[in-house]
Predict the structure of Sulfotransferase domain-containing protein.
Amino acid sequence: GFWYKQGFWYQSKADFSVEAIMAAQDDFQLALPTDIFLASHPKTGTTWLKALSFAILNRTKFKTTSGSSPTHPLLTVSPHDCVPFIDCESFLTNPSYANGLLATHIPYTSLPKSIINTDCRIVYICRDPKDVLISSWHFLNKLNDDVSTPIKLVDAFEVFSRGMSPGGSYWDHVIGYYKASLERPSKVLLLKYEELKKDPEKEVKKLAKFLGKPFTEEEEFDGSVQKIIELCSFENLREVSNDGKQISKVLSDSLFFRKGVVGDSINYLTPEMIQTLDKITKEKFDGLDISFQA
Ligand code: A3P
């Protein structure tokens, strides 16, 4: 079943479902001012942002090559195991606040009040809507592997462009966090997938500063930034995920690594679809300073 709640569409009886969001609103009253939330719409680079933030905050605790400190978790487990989603059944039944780093797909306007009221920091990642659609379409079809009829692209396009995808409208999701980032710049940082791909060093430094763990001058020169980028690269994370590990009842870790590039949607969408999506983007973001450069 599908639900329309607080301005967005949700599925029922799934992770990130309407029930999970309502439960998070009721149950998540414990946010601490030191908590950091990684927020996103699905398929915008959540897994990457989780890995980068975790690696930045824990960079002195773990070894990645040699030395006596413990092996880096990202060399053995999924970024999703390092940073839990609060809007997942598993978190709601067994909350773990291991390191104050948490994630959510909940739209800004529906976030549990304690997150806003306690002034937690929020990092939001977004991405070109066309690539989000194509990434979601592949993801849903892989998730439904056992179902004999795959979702047709035209149908996925229709649902996405009408803003009826789970957690959608995507555009409204971005707008909510974008406005928050303007109103509370020290509390809400907006990152873009495309910019992370284009200049990872600049964006990772920006992220580290926002997270309260800026790189020291020494670190900027000793390759620490590069090391984190490398550890969290698509290739590395995908390799770690390759053994079919599950991160929840229905999700296997490797589902989160497909192609990891900017602009892959051009290989799937018709020129008409591209035109329609770009038109929606232009209309929705009219007067706002949001754009996605390849
Ligand atoms: P594609 O399907 O376009 O390849 P999310 O983590 O929000 O579910 O987003 C998944 C998307 O991010 C997928 O996009 C996936 O391949 C890509 N991705 C995952 N890890 C990445 C990384 N380390 N670097 C770049 N892209 C990554």
About this structure: The beta strands are 2-5, 8-11, 36-40, 101-104, 121-126, 188-192.
